[in-house]
Specification:
The protein is α/β, with parallel strands linked by helices. It has helices at residues 16-21, 23-32, 68-81, 93-104, 120-129, 140-149, 166-179, 202-214, 229-237, 250-259, 269-276, 328-331, 335-348, and strands at residues 7-11, 37-43, 58-62, 85-88, 112-115, 187-190, 219-221, 242-243, 262-266, 281-284, 302-304. 38% of the residues lie in helices and 13% in strands.
């Protein structure tokens, strides 16, 4: 480690789950460069999940759908900041343009640019040809930290973390009292995903919840305001379940998940929020695979998947199923299978 940095710009715009997975970067950069001033450039839509993070000194928010004028205004503003390290953990077209702008107009000779390797070609090869060059690969959080790890012999900590405020904690504690939900004695269900192709069938969630209700487990539905699956489940079960989807901000949701015994969800941000708060998850993977780097991290967590030759068929749940038995990767995972995994976690608790 030959150089220290006084002003560091870290770039990651989206999405919610990925922002959660970047949290080790802020902590570890500050640990390796304790006197640095860290600025995060992120999307306005997701900035609230990293509020109160003690390792971030400043946050610059930027709209996800900006005009060219807004983008140029941003780069002009960033040039004035004179960052001596630009750490790009997104590597999107936008972040590459920003890097290029700052490199071309930056005068300090000791400026460095770090960027992640997203291994896009290997992912495409796995999806389109079934050739797996990602076996034994690193997780997303490991990928985000890789540029820093190359600079230091110190082993970096991959643990994610979030920092709800005192107000967030008080709100959730009062909510739990109102709903009569004892800490660590209820299960959160996140039945939605950013793209429907990753969603375990709604009727399977119904069957799973029925199994859990029969064992007197209180159920809390979580997710965002725009998701339809929690509403469908609430309509089906009525007062037997609690629906808090869309009623909490990300840090409030994280606080709720901290109090839960377990979370069950698709390959989506709910699992990352839960694990960042120390709560194990059972994550159901269908068209996506662990090689993409989003598998659960905690020892108590479980990834549920079936090894089918057609997997993976997508990186994010977009697109149509490519076999006649639509989404066999998801429908072949029965509610009983997931329930048995819940019992397994409960036995070890």
């Amino acid at each position: 480690m030959n150089q220290s940095f006084s002003k560091i710009l870290i770039i990651r715009f989206s999405s919610l789950g990925d922002i959660v997975l970047t949290t080790p970067v802020f902590r570890e950069v500050k640990r390796i460069y304790p006197h640095s001033h860290i600025t995060l450039l992120t999307s306005t839509d997701f900035s609230n999940v990293i509020m109160n993070n003690p390792y971030i000194d400043a946050v610059i928010e930027h709209p996800r759908r900006e005009s060219w004028q807004e983008l140029h205004q941003l780069t002009r503003y960033l040039k004035k900041k004179s960052f001596d390290l630009i750490y790009d953990i997104h590597c999107s077209l936008r972040s590459r343009f920003i890097r290029w702008q700052l490199q071309n107009f930056f005068s300090k000779k000791n400026q460095q640019i770090w960027k992640i390797n997203k291994q896009e070609f290997k992912k495409i090869l796995l999806i389109r040809r079934g050739i797996n060059l990602l076996k034994g690969g690193i997780s997303q959080r490991g990928m985000f930290l890789s540029p820093l790890q190359q600079q230091t012999p110190i082993a970096l900590n991959l643990t994610t973390e979030l920092f709800p405020s005192a107000e967030d904690k008080e709100k959730i504690e009062m909510l739990l009292q109102t709903l009569n939900l004892p800490t660590k004695h209820f299960i959160c269900i996140g039945p939605s995903a950013s793209f429907h192709g990753k969603c375990w069938p709604i009727e399977f969630y119904q069957n799973l919840i029925e199994l859990l209700l029969n064992q007197n487990w209180p159920i809390v539905l979580v997710g965002s305001k725009s998701e339809v699956e929690p509403v469908q489940l609430k309509n089906y079960f009525g007062d037997k379940v609690h629906n808090l989807a869309g009623k909490l901000n990300p840090l409030e949701s994280a606080t709720l998940l901290h109090h839960a015994f377990l979370a069950v969800c698709n390959d989506t941000s709910i699992g990352h929020l839960a694990e960042a708060m120390g709560t194990p998850v059972i994550t159901i993977f269908g068209p996506t695979v662990r090689e993409f780097g989003y598998a659960p991290f905690l020892k108590q967590s479980i990834l549920v998947e079936n090894d089918l030759s057609c997997r993976p068929c997508t990186r994010n749940g977009k697109g149509e199923c490519k076999i006649n038995q639509k989404r066999l990767c998801l429908t072949s995972i029965s509610p009983q299978m997931v329930y048995d995994h819940i019992l397994q976690v409960a036995e070890k608790a």
